[in-house]
Design a protein that fits this description.
229 residues; mainly alpha
């Protein structure tokens, strides 16, 4: 069921993109339209190769082929338990195989194609035939629209559970460790040296008369010291 829902919405959104980009009125300015050009070969050739491989890959997987899917037959030796066990040097038990009948494969194939076509038709009706349908559905299914438009609010939940706590913890660590401890130590050394230099500036004036005065005072202090003893 999940795969069918995914097939429906994938087809719907891809053709919604196609209709809005190539079938609706252009909103480009004349200057922007003047610069439009086809993609270079370096982009076109890989896309063509991928398109061919996509068609071939789907074709070889169709269930009407004799002997089963060609791609499955080609990969069968790789996924057989005996081949895996031999390659790993171990004994691998045989896995349970539940073959699907060709009729069931056709039913699943047609069901998936039908669901994808329904998505394409719905996109055609909502964006080309009746452009107001999308707006009406958005109004009618407002709660679902808010959930889908908010991307299931995963970003908000992640922000509240992870980003906000980590940011708050980091800010607290920054205010305590970086501001008080690291900056406090660096600024404290700077203030200590600044205070010591302020005291030394009173002694180191650069004037000879000041130095002579200090020398005379020092000599007088020595004389007084020796006279007392």
């Amino acid at each position: 069921m999940t795969s069918l829902v995914g097939a429906f919405f994938t087809a719907f959104y891809m053709f919604r993109l196609y209709f809005l980009a190539f079938r609706k009125e252009s909103h480009l300015t004349h200057k922007a339209e003047h610069h439009l050009h086809e993609s270079p070969r370096t982009m076109i050739i890989p896309l063509v190769v991928l398109a061919i491989l996509t068609v071939v890959g789907g074709w070889v997987g169709l269930p009407f082929q004799k002997g089963g899917h060609a791609f499955e037959r080609w990969l069968r030796p790789v996924f057989e338990p005996d081949a895996v066990g031999t390659a790993l040097g171990e004994s691998v038990p045989h896995a349970a195989v539940h073959p699907v009948s060709p009729m069931m494969e056709w039913i699943l194939l047609e069901l998936s194609v039908g669901v994808a076509l329904a998505g394409i038709v719905f996109a055609f009706r909502a964006y080309l035939r009746d452009p107001g349908l999308a707006t009406r559905l958005r109004t009618r299914l407002a709660p679902m629209y808010r959930v889908l438009a908010g991307k299931y609010f995963v970003d908000e939940l992640y922000d509240r559970l992870v980003v906000t706590p980590v940011y708050a913890t980091s800010e607290r660590l920054w205010r305590f460790w970086d501001v008080k401890v690291v900056d406090g130590a660096v600024n404290g050394v700077g203030l200590l040296l600044e205070g010591a230099s302020a005291a030394l500036r009173l002694l180191q004036t650069g004037f000879v008369g000041t130095y002579a005065l200090f020398i005379a005072l020092g000599a007088a202090a020595l004389v007084l010291h020796f006279l007392r003893h």
